[in-house]
Structure formats: structure tokens, C-alpha cells
Amino acid sequence: GAGVSQSPSNKVTEKGKDVELRCDPISGHTALYWYRQSLGQGLEFLIYFQGNSAPDKSGLPSDRFSAERTGGSVSTLTIQRTQQEDSAVYLCASSLGTRASAQPQHFGDGTRLSIL
Amino acid sequence: QQQVKQSPQSLIVQKGGISIINCAYENTAFDYFPWYQQFPGKGPALLIAIRPDVSEKKEGRFTISFNKSAKQFSLHIMDSQPGDSATYFCAASKNSGYSTLTFGKGTMLLVSP
């Protein structure tokens, strides 16, 4: 497809387990963002990748969260030792570059993560 | 610290009416203000955006009004339709260089038939 693809669309796991969430950005988009959307809390920035530059990890809420982007394309967000407060929709977005008005962010449909 | 405050949290409008959603920002470095529309189970999609060099931008039934001195901007949906029922997010960022979007908490709009 032409849009941002995220998988799985839904994930239910037990507290304490590790989870991996995948994002396939739009082809050719060099910038990739992860956000977390909790009920009534809007979208919270987690991490940003731009080309081969070091990622901006300033939004990651704890060291249990990490992300990688391989080959400048696919990204994986990993949450270790999941907690119930990690339950949320995790959204990925990509853009051609960093100039917001010229290269807007395109979002995937997210992964709904539920921690039991 | 919430840098973009959005109100109301929810809104019910009759079909054909005007929907108005307001946002206020704190960071004077922000110079790009998009609105995103999100339907249930879908990711947000860019609806309309404005730069502070203009006070108003209109695209079809959607208009952004911008007040730089008050650090406020709003989305107006004219002739609201049931298909407009969705959650709307305002956001702000710096337009130059690298900057992530800072989002408001969203407004759930319901347009009644």
C-alpha cells in the first residue's frame, strides 16, 4: 500500500512480557516518528528518526522503551517488562523530511496494545 | 507542562450548524499549526494547516482562524455534517529545521442528523 503500515493492529499481552511493534513508513520518507495515544491524553511524542542521524529519544517514558530503524526504513518499537500503564494506541508517522509545512506527517492506523 | 491546550473536550452540533474548536499555545517559537482529523480505529489525518503570516485559511467547509497576539487558533467547520463526526486534534511545531508536533488533547465532535 501507499500509506504507513503498522503491525499488529491489536496486541494483548500479560504484564511483564516484552512486546514489539512494527512500522513500515511510506517509501522514500526519511523521517519516522512514534507517538503514544492514551484515552483523553492526545498524542504523546516518543521517538524520532531522521535518515542516518542519531534518533531523538527525548519522549521515551522509561528505559523499558526502545526503538530501532533498520536500513532507514522499517522501525520497531520495543517495550520490555510491560506494565498496565503501557496500554495505549501506539502510532507511527512518516514524512519526507523535517520541514513541517512542506512535508507533513502521515500516520498509520496504530497498534492497540492492551496489558492484562 | 501542556504546551497546547484544546477545548472543548467534546462537542455536539446539529447537522448544518457550525462547529468551533479552540486551541491556545505557549511556545512563541511555534510557527506551524495543523489540525488533524481522526476517525475511530484510524490514524490521524492532516485536515488543514496555517502559518502565522496569515490570520485565516479556508479550505472548503473548514477554516482556521489565527490570533498571533493572543497565541490562539481555532477550527471552524461550516455546515457540519454527520460524516464530520470524529476526533479533532490541533497541533503546533516549529516549521524550520527539525521539530516534532505538539498535540492538544483532542475534541470529540458528534454531528447529530
End-to-end distance of chain A = 32 Å
The rounded distance between the terminal residues' Cα atoms of chain B is: 38 Å
Low-confidence stretches of chain B: none
Instruction: Assess the beta-strand content of chain B as a share of residues.
Output: over 45%
**Chain-averaged pLDDT of chain B:** 93
**How many H/I helices of chain B?**
0
Task: Give the ordered list of helices and strands of chain A.
Answer: EEEEEEEEEE
Helix/strand order of chain B: EEEEEEEEEEE
Outline type of chain A? globular
The rounded Rg of chain B comes to 13 Å
Number of strands of chain B: 11
Number of discrete helical segments of chain A: 0
Coarse structural class of chain A: mainly beta
Number of DSSP strand runs of chain A: 10
Unreliable runs of chain A, pLDDT <50, ≥5 residues? Answer: none
- Secondary structure category of chain B: mainly beta
Shape of chain B: globular
**Mean pLDDT across all amino acids of chain A:** 91
Assembly status:
heterodimer
- In percent, how helical is the residue content of chain A? under 10%
